[in-house]
Amino acid sequence: MQNRHPVTPFDNIESSHEFVSLLAHAVEEAVAEVEADIATATEADARRRTEALQLVHFHLSKLSGHMAASRRILNDLRTLRRLLLEERLTETAMRRGA
Fold first, then answer.
1. Is residue 6 situated within a structural domain?
2. What is the pTM of this model?
3. Phi, psi (rounded to 5 degrees) for 6
4. Among residues 7, 18, 27, 37, which one has the least CA distance to residue 78?
5. What is the per-residue pLDDT across 45-92, written as a single tens digit (0 to 9) for each?
6. Which domain holds residue 71?
7. DSSP sequence for the chain
8. pLDDT tens-digit profile of 34-58?
9. Residue 44 and residue 11: Cα distance in Å, rounded?
10. How many domains does the chain contain in total?
11. Per the domain annotation, does 20 fall within a domain?
12. Looking at the domain assignment, is residue 25 inside a domain?
């Protein structure tokens, strides 16, 4: 395997996992902000704004779920890669010892 520095956040599983984690955190912050905006709009009796913000909240919540699922998948892939690399290293060591 070639050792090189990642050029994009998606060049390897670790950097992809880190990127998705940062994005998930940003989404959670946005959800908190929208919840505060919904409360303000509700107090101001701005019905259309409240409804629009509730729609934004709904979509951000869906996105948050997708980010959590993506983090779990990337974590599983990291675990599987480590397992497979360990097996490959073990096989190589056994061949050299034989």
1. no
2. 0.76
3. -65, 140
4. 18
5. 999 999 999 999 999 999 999 999 999 999 999 999 999 988 777 877
6. 13-97
7. ------SSTTSSHHHHHHHHHHHHHHHHHHHHHHHHHHHHHHHTT-HHHHHHHHHHHHHHHHHHHHHHHHHHHHHHHHHHHHHHHHHHHHHHHHHHH-
8. 999 999 999 999 999 999 999 999 9
9. 47
10. 1
11. yes
12. yes
